[in-house]
Design a protein that fits this description.
288 residues, alpha/beta, Vcp-like ATPase, Chain A, domain 2, Rossmann fold, 2 domains, seven-stranded mixed beta sheet, four-stranded antiparallel beta sheet, 15 strands, binds S-adenosylmethionine
């Protein structure tokens, strides 16, 4: 249950019969919360009122134990949309980290979908298992965790063309493009979350070079919450200035290559000393 005091401070607990919640502002017996409707007011022994509700997933992921950085709710929402994840989707993600995005993917794909999470660090996989199981009240039957590097997965781990959507949240997503090409169905969606512009550029150029993806789309979302108090209605002073960028593209059909770009690169897009992916496709003079 999530208890919110009149200042908006939230406490999340798992209720246990007979247990007592101790706050700085008095005690609340768990028994007085168990079985109650959401949206009721519980009063502590010092007379402080708390609004009692079940936490929503957005609250849960920001408060759950984490080992690796988690995907924030604003980005998770866009990932679900860009990946076209819905009821019955077959979704693959790597890595699982703390399992924040996993919860959104499982919720969107529902019991008729599947979510396969590949994580190369067993300590992170364990944290994700605990976080996901706590949220769903047990391990969802639609979820499978593979403790391995996505690059090392084979046909027996993830069959060719078996996935509708692949989400990559890792330092070097470009290393996984061959696997992505193998496991995604024709028309499937690849969505990658990267934290820096250098990763963004390297990933997009690698995708273009392989010609197995439609023209990548890149975006970031900036969410600004507002202070609402009488006539003092303005943006809040604090916000998450930067989380990451999202890159999304669709998978080409087997044996097909994406059409070469018709647009010439913008002047200076590829500097004289650029050595990265796609460097050999830039003609003399195009670098401006
Ligand atoms: C930033 S975390 C993922 C966070 C996660 N999306 C969440 O919302 O909690 C990145 C994870 O990717 C894992 N990782 C990096 N490269 C990988 C690879 N090639 N295969 C599998 N896991 C990988 C790391 O061990 C790390 O746990």
């Amino acid at each position: 249950m999530q208890l919110t005091d009149t200042r908006g401070v939230k406490v999340t607990i798992t209720t246990v019969p007979g247990a007592i919640l101790h706050t700085h502002r008095g005690q609340i017996p768990h028994d007085s919360l168990i079985g109650m409707d959401e949206g009721f007011i519980a009063t502590s022994t010092r007379g402080i009122d708390y609004l009692v509700q079940r936490p929503q997933l957005d609250d849960y992921v920001l408060g759950m134990p984490r080992q690796a950085a988690v995907i924030y709710p604003k980005d998770a929402a866009r990932i679900v949309a860009l990946g076209d994840v819905g009821s019955g989707s077959r979704v693959l993600e790597a890595g699982v980290g703390s399992g924040a995005l996993t919860c959104y993917l499982l919720k969107a794909a529902g019991p008729t979908g599947t979510v396969t999470s590949v994580e190369r660090r067993s300590d992170f996989a364990e944290v994700a298992r605990e976080n996901v199981s706590r949220w769903f009240g047990g391990t969802p039957r639609s979820w499978r965790v593979s403790e391995m590097d996505l690059v090392d997965t084979t046909e027996s781990d993830i069959p060719t063309g078996s996935q509708d959507t692949l989400i990559l949240d890792m330092l070097a997503p470009w290393e996984c493009l061959d696997v992505a090409d193998r496991v995604l169905r024709a028309g499937g969606s690849l969505v990658s979350y990267v934290a820096t512009t250098t990763q963004l550029s390297r990933l997009v150029e690698s995708m273009r070079l392989s010609r197995r993806w439609t023209e990548p789309r890149a975006e970031e979302s900036i969410v600004r919450t507002w202070h609402l108090d009488g006539l003092a209605v303005r943006p809040d002073h604090r916000m998450s200035g930067h989380t990451g960028f999202l890159v999304a593209a669709r998978h080409m059909a087997p044996g097909q290559q994406s059409p070469p770009r018709r647009r010439r690169p913008a002047p200076g897009a590829y500097g004289q000393d650029y050595q990265g992916p796609g460097a050999d496709q830039v003609e003399e003079g195009e670098s401006g």
